[in-house]
Amino acid sequence: MEFWRQFHEQQTGSFFLLSSSSDPNLIDHTQKMELEVNSDPLRDWKLQSNWYSPTRLHCSPVEYDFPGDRFIPNRSLMDLDQAYTLLTNRTNCSTRCNFSAGYRRIMEENLTLDREGRPFRMLVFRGSPKSSRKSIRYIDELRNSDEELFNHNISPNQQRKFPKKESRILDAPYLKDDFYMNVMDWGKNNILAVALGRDLYLWNAVNEGIHHLFKSNSVNDHPSSVSWSQDCKTLAVGHSRSQIQLWDTHAYKLIRRLEGHQTMVGATSWNGHILTSGSSKAIMNHDVRVRNSLVSHVKAHRSRVCGLKWSMTGNLLASGGDDNIVYIWEASRMNSARFVHRFTNHEAAVKALAWCPYNFQVLASGGGTDDGCIKLWNTQQGTCITSVNTEAQICGLEWNKHYKEIVSGHGFSTSNERKNTLSLWRYPSMVKAGELTSHSSRVLQLAQNPDGLTLVSAGADETLRFWEIFGPLPPVKRRYSILSSKAFPIR
Predict the structure, then answer these.
(1) Of all residues in the chain, what percent are helix, strand and coil, respectively (each to 5)?
(2) What pairs with residue 201 in β-bridges?
(3) If exposure means fewest CB atoms within 10 Å of the residue's CB, which of 68, 115, 444, 452 is most exposed?
(4) 222 near 243, Cβ under 8 Å?
């Protein structure tokens, strides 16, 4: 009982210690005092519950003098005007100061004098020693030298040794001489997939091993398009009898068949888990993760679709057809069959399509025999940037990943000097930098290895020819910074 009475008195502000043997009159007098102190129990309850809260005094007009938190002072209890006066007034002490002049003098001595009585200032910015600082002119000279070195190392059209012949030749018997098929693809796993007649082979560029994946059961059916998925776990194979097969190349087994086309599937292209395929007038998107895989079915071309390429960003699809038209599609709007751009400048079938690796808005397209033009498109503005006449059928286009160049593979031509060649073009001037003439028949398709140094061409002469036309790698360029590393002692 005595404990609870003392606790109650401490909470209500009364500091009288009462015992059970106290005088009753004294107890009555004390109770009256407690009632006077606790005239507003609700106010006292708020005070106790918000003892350390910075906002506890805002809800009451009564002034209290409590210190707040131990480390964070209560701003509502501070006299900021007095504090400002104490900090700025160096002569007279404020009249509201509750400490003596002697105490103030001792504090000033401790803050402004060291142990030996010499003047001392705390937290003063002194800067770095004069001997370690470099002049502004010296730093500017260092930055200018870095900039000159940077400009000297950069050569936008660096001259390289152009190869005179191929580095390797592989036999490709039964390779079909068909302009409207795409039967070769080099995956990021450094495995080249190529269809030879009814058979499909995998050639490992690392150990030069060859694996026979499958052979079509029907005499009238053969692979007509080949495309590696981006993770190289799946190989999509379109067939001349309209079926699409998905192969697991690790287990070497068929995992799925996709239906929907009515004629030969001549072009396929991956965009993540979406497989896009093209046949006669139709473009289909399949989500290979689900059972009902068909996502969209678009009919825009007036003739067969022979070229499909997704952009590197995955938001745009370019399609070329035998109707001489190039369409640009947006991935999110293909269900509505509304294209972004429609280019009609070519005068022959468009099979060769390639997105620029260092300018994602630029698309290169190549026309057939009656056209023979490489056209560069700005897909953001929907305009033709430039057009160059190659005087030959264009069957394939590949950008150089390391230099601003593009290679074109050619077929038929009225000029004997232009047909069956590979041409290297400078970008963006589109000036021809070299030409290769080893194929005895037209070049049907081009592909490049993952590191972008080797190009392979598939010819109607039933050969695969490998070229070191894109290498070697450019020299390592040191990035220039406006804040040169030479100007700092720590690196």
Answers:
(1) 20, 35, 50
(2) 194, 212
(3) 115
(4) no
